[in-house]
Amino acid sequence: MPLRGTDHTEDIRSDAAYFKTLADLDDWATKPHAGLDGVLPYIARPLVGTDASSQNRGRLLVCHDYKGGYTETPSGLAYTFNFWSYCDTFIYFSHHRVTVPPAGWINAAHRQGVKMLGTLIFEHDAGQQDCLRVLVGHLPQSKTGPAAPSADSSFPLSPHYAKLLAELAHQRGFDGYLLNVEVPLIGRIEQARALAAWISVLESELKRRIGSHAETIWYDSVVVTGDLRWQDRLNNYNLPFFLPSSGFFTNYTWRPNYPSLTAQYFFSLDPALMTVPKTLQDIYVGIDVWGRGQHGGGGFGSYRSLAHIDPEFLGLSVAFFGPGWSWETEQDKPGFSWETWWAYERKLWIGPETEGEAVEVPPHNPRAGEPDCQHGEFTPVSAFFPRQAPPNPKELPFLTYFSPGIGYAWFVQGKKAYGTTAGWTDLDKTTALGDLVWPRPLPQWVDSQEALPVPATSTSLCLTDAWLGGSSLNITLSLLGQEGEDNARRSLWIPVQTLALSPHVSYTVTLVYKVTSHSILELDVTHSVKVLGDSPTPAFDVKQRTPQSSGLSHGWQSLSADVILRSDQSTNVLSAVGLVVGFKAPTDAIDTNILLGLMSVHPTSPSPAPGISTHQPKILWADYALQPKNASRLSGVLSWDIAASLGPVTSTALARDPEDPTPLWTLEEAFPAFAFFNIYAQVYPSDGNIGGPETAIWIGTTGLDGRRNRFGVDPACLPVAMSNAKTLRFYVQGVTDRGAVLTWDNCVFVDAHLS
User: Most buried residue among 101, 498, 517, 700 by CB atoms closer than 10 A?
Assistant: First the structure.
């Protein structure tokens, strides 16, 4: 995230952010381009428990379509999505021919185990021509033709663009495409048949190049005759396009009985037709949040549509189109702020903050010929889908600093390094917000026999104080005054985040927090991991790494412990990481706040015993290169490499018996990995007396362009005072995927001599 920067469609990479035509895609293919090494791989969410019914529930696909796409900027606020735990697939949508999801969006999704798809769309007259071209392949520049007359009049089919699109998805790190053909086919039924065949080629190429998880989703548009005729459900007119695809996305203007008709039609199909295996969950019934022709009216009336789709009992999935509606319809209203939007957005997705609060919904106006359905009171979107844990930390370390992908400041270890009134947006910095604390936490006494009422508890995002990034999670406890025996010390368990953990694997859990309560109230905060569900007792062994909270800078505290799940189960176990807050009830009612700045869960590293070498992450070197094509002398590229320090050798080979079967050392398998890097700059004075890194100015972070060890220096990133400098010193500071900020002795600097 640069401090101030240009739009990422014009960054220093030669790779285009999207392609307006297939000819542009051909041009891209002729040039050298490396894959994005800063994009997280897709790791499937773990299966938990043995409840087969959860496997038959419909899934949620979200298709964002926010202001045409590619509008996010690091120098302002924008819509971000933060309900990943209910979503299975996310589509980045725009009206360019080939939409490539930005790296930050891919990372935000993959961090939560959600697939990210791009879009291939054909619209208008140019779309008709390109829809022909996608089938016949790259057009030659020379005169060519058949070597001999042929009686074959069928439509030709080339794998050229299927291969290019698969290669593009592989290099940029996303998981497939939405196929949106919203033009009549010039070649009519012959072209329709060839298009269906081409889909099977694309599906095969994607799975070959990306993996078995790759997807192609067909949007309900053209039919087998080549006409553009939205059907609003699956039927014989669009079946040939569904069969070779991974899934089917219906149009939005369906009648209330169409979801059940779709299910009936699907079950009437011969399973032998399914060249790509299908279930009812592979049919996504479209909901336009904007309400255009939508049963129920969209917006806060979307629950009416969801009730007819019935993902829990009927089993159909949902394609939720245009959720940026919540931002776009509110942003110009008086008093709009990110905080007011966030409250509005939460209400749509997870319900009101106050239990029992009535939610105003638009009137239901049935269309001509529709029955006047009785839908009941408002139900949030999340009520229709199961909450799912992110990837097992054994496979992808879990790290959150409670960032929604926006902020007004940037903090490094509790110190404010940067502030802006305009705000910033960086989807790469989107982390889990704690899926068990919204719309409100559900605390319970640690002693199940406790008879007193559980204190009221609420949550909010604090954008003015953080340990890392731009925000922290604020948990407010409203404690009632107590006297006498009721004033005894007690403990409250507050679950924060769902995780799926493997039995008999040691995980290290780290929590960074700050208590901002009234001085007369003493709180003891510890972290805790519990099994969710009907397990009779918590099945965790806990080895505290820090016997008590360790003090950090700026009032923050740290706790760390190793936990092992003791269970007879061989599968992942759904668990919750949270807090235990101990306190002696005050004599008068009082509100107290706990800020959570960081939560990290990862496999426990080997203990530093003799003969065991544990990798310590460090940055090895940095380099700086001017950008010759850019007019500004301040434009350049920082690059660096990382390394692992193995520490000193504690013994020598000569001290061992040559017949001893024990190796002199063993090495940790995992190599250090980084979440992002902070970049700082300072002017190198003419007298050479430059200050240390503590005096440098933070100018941004990596992650915006999908590159792991690179940062594009834009003049807009630099303070005005540096504009006339002859030499700048840049510092690169790593933040590991476990949330640790490297000490300066493990970081590097590089001097940039400006022309």
Answer: 101
Same domain as 462, residue 316: no
**242 contacts 219 by C-beta, under 8 angstroms:** no
Query: Which residues are registered as beta bridge partners of 63?
Result: 91, 321
What pLDDT digit, counting tens, does each position of 521-543 carry? Answer: 677 888 888 888 765 555 788 77
* Residue 734 contacts residue 711 (beta carbons within 8 Å): no
User: Domain tally for the chain?
Assistant: 3
Instruction: Look at residue 629 and tell me if it is in a domain.
Output: yes
- The CA distances from residue 610 to 92, 260, 562, in Å, are 51, 66, 20
Listed in sequence order, the residues at least 6 apart from 727 whose beta carbon sits closer than 8 Å to its beta carbon are 683, 684, 751, 752, 753, 754
Provide the pLDDT for residue 587: 72
* Residue 9 pLDDT: 36
Ramachandran angles phi, psi of 227, nearest 5°: -80, 150
Average pLDDT over residues 43-54: 72
Coil, strand or helix at 682: strand
**Half-sphere exposure in the Cβ direction for 553 (13 Å, CA):** 10
Listing DSSP states for 478-538 in one string gives EEPP--GGGGSEEEEEEEEEEEEE-TT-EEEEEEEEEE---TT--EEEEEEEEE-SS-SS-
Residue 97: pLDDT over 90: yes
The answer, yes or no, to whether residue 448 has pLDDT greater than 80, is no
Q: What's the predicted TM-score (pTM) here? A: 0.94
Per-residue pLDDT of 126-141, as tens digits, reads 999 999 999 999 877 7
Residue span of the structural domain in which 690 resides: 612-753
